[in-house]
Amino acid sequence: MMFKLSTLLAIASSVIAAEADGSPFKPPSVEDAAVYARTLVKRESLTNVNTISHSGSSEGKPVSFVEYYADCGDGNPVLLAIDMSTSYKNYASGSPATLSIRVGDHPLNEHVNPKYPGSRPNSVAGSPRINLRGSFVNVTTEELPQLEACFLERHRDARWWLPGNPIHSSHFVKFE
User: Which residue numbers delimit the CREG-like beta-barrel domain (predicted)?
Assistant: First the structure.
């Protein structure tokens, strides 16, 4: 997974880690924050896509919607972009986008290891969370079969929204 230094510094400042000796919590190092970020992206599969609204009564205001994603090998989240969704319409209209991921952001039927590096037991607010900054990049035709299979392993119900379906226009993107 390739994160920009600014993203890792943002992660380091937003993740809290417990010291083994019981001393007060302190921000993790950039290296530790990178480990936490990679672990979150790999284990979890739901993200909030955060954009700025470009229309209606919400114009100019931040909006955030949950979307499926999958880590399909290189650490960059792969998302199924439904073209009519607010998040992708805002992005197509020029909005920046960020992804927010936290411990527990996965479907209830998934069995994800609850022990995270840097986590404070029984504390959602004391557990790792990240806000990734980047851009949506369309996947190549060559990548599509592998990414579609990977994505459907995490989100079987997404087959109804795959590119080429008669209901919604969609395409796969990576967040880089």
Answer: 28-176
Q: What is the pLDDT of residues 78-127, one digit of tens each?
A: 999 999 999 999 999 999 999 999 887 777 777 777 676 767 777 777 78
The closest alpha carbon to 67, from 53, 81, 55, 54, belongs to 81
The answer to whether the beta carbons of residues 88 and 81 sit under 8 Å apart is yes
Cβ atoms of 102 and 124 closer than 8 Å: yes
Distances (CA, A) of 72 to 21, 47, 145, 152: 36, 15, 12, 11
Q: 44 exposed, middle or buried (CB, 10 Å; 0-12, 13-18, 19+)?
A: buried
pLDDT of 152 higher than 80: yes
**Domains of the chain: residue spans and CATH:** 5-175 (2.30.110.10)
